[in-house]
Design goal:
The chain contains five helices and ten strands, in the order αβαβαββαβββββαβ. It is an alpha/beta fold. It folds into two domains: 128 residues, Rossmann fold, CATH 3.40.50.150; 50 residues, no CATH class. The structure holds S-adenosylmethionine (SAM).
């Protein structure tokens, strides 16, 4: 786990999210989905995911949280709990939807790659923007960094940002668009960046 400057392991902090966050996540779940929730805490969301999805796998690293969740009542038959480190454990095959609610996540790229490797196409998460949730299309092509012009970007590595440009070029459409990129400056050293072509 990554420990911050204040000695706090932010990734391990557990706190329930607000109801609107859970509701937004749940709107993306279909009855045929096999869901993998990464960092399931006390299973409160996993239980709700299991009401809609065909099957839910819930991975949580802290056994005491899982134990608290088990004590909350009988678990649905279509919920499989996996206690351990999602960075190291193999992900089950056939996942169609990943859920990652972890605002301080430092391993977004790892989780996105592991989900893609087991055939998962969609990831519902707050890990990149830290507020609300987005649905990441794990199959969408990501633009090479040098092709991204002015505007918002979100990188496969988990970094987000805004490529600046002349204020007069900023349109509402540009403001509302997020370019999916890979090899941004946060994950790819400047020395390896090709020259930008359109900024
Ligand atoms: C902010 S909480 C969210 C819990 C749950 N998704 C919810 O909304 O109620 C993040 C959870 O991720 C767990 N976690 C952090 N790193 C993990 C890892 N590598 N493997 C499994 N769980 C992890 C933490 O222990 C914590 O319970």
């Amino acid at each position: 786990m990554t420990v911050g400057q204040a000695g706090i392991d932010w990734e391990r902090l557990w706190a329930p999210y607000d109801e609107s966050t859970y509701k937004e996540v749940l709107t993306w779940v279909h009855p045929q989905d096999v869901v993998l929730e990464i960092g399931a805490g006390d299973l409160r969301l996993a239980r709700r995911l299991a009401r809609t999805a065909r099957h839910v796998y819930a991975i949580e690293i802290q056994p005491d949280l899982v134990e608290r969740g088990r004590r909350a009542g009988p678990l649905p038959n279509n919920l499989t709990i996996i206690v351990g480190d999602a960075r190291r454990l193999p992900f089950p095959a056939g996942i169609s939807l990943g859920v990652l609610l972890m605002r301080h996540c430092r391993h977004f790229a790892l989780y996105a790659d592991k989900l893609s490797a087991v055939g998962c196409r969609r990831l519902v998460t707050n890990a990149r923007w830290g507020m609300g949730v987005e649905v990441v299309d794990l199959t969408a092509p990501a633009l090479p960094w040098e092709q991204v012009g002015m505007g918002w970007y979100a990188c496969r590595c988990g970094a987000i940002g805004f490529v600046p440009g002349p204020p007069e070029a900023l349109t509402p459409a540009l403001e509302a668009t997020v370019h999916q990129v890979h090899r941004c400056p946060a994950c790819w050293p400047a020395s390896r960046q090709p020259l930008a072509v359109n900024r």
